[in-house]
UniProtKB/TrEMBL annotation:
Residues 31-93 form the Luciferase domain. It comes from Halogeometricum limi. InterPro entries: Luciferase_dom. It holds the Pfam family Luciferase. This is Luciferase domain-containing protein.
């Protein structure tokens, strides 16, 4: 099940997929890990705690299986719909990292070109997640046309 997930996530601008220190595949953007896969049935994704709480409260995932008090979540993959949800969660984490990277003057062009505002608008975020995302990104996202 994770082959399609890994292919999809690896194709996003600026993403590097490589071995994770605890086995599996790690995804990074700008040197920042935004998630990893263990085996074929488990995806772990870091979020700020407020975002973690929201995605857990919305029933999209569960708290991390080993570190429930952290900002990490664990998405178990039992069906294709779980894979789709894991990709959605990874995309949310990715966009949070991209938005932060875009504020850096040395951001790579591939990162600068991501239209975070348009991407999050297309994600069907809850009102709470949309507010948290705007607060975490300062409501500022840089598009390629702003560069």
């Amino acid at each position: 099940m994770t082959t399609d997930l890994e292919s999809a996530v690896s194709a996003w601008p600026g993403v590097v997929a490589g071995p994770h220190r605890f086995a599996g595949t790690e995804f990074t953007v700008g040197g920042r890990e935004f998630g990893h896969v263990h085996g074929t049935r488990q995806v772990d994704i870091p979020f700020p705690k407020g975002v973690r709480d929201a995605v857990v409260d919305e029933g999209r995932t569960s708290k991390h299986h080993l570190y429930p008090d952290s900002g990490w979540v664990t998405k178990y993959l039992h069906a294709e719909s779980d894979v789709e949800q894991a990709v959605w969660l990874l995309r949310l984490s990715y966009l949070l990292h991209v938005a932060a990277l875009q504020r850096r003057p040395d951001a790579e062009e591939a990162i600068r070109a991501v239209d975070v505002a348009a991407e999050t608008a297309a994600m069907d975020l809850s009102a709470g997640l949309r507010e948290m995302f705007a607060a975490r990104t300062g409501g500022r996202t840089r598009r390629a046309s702003d560069a």
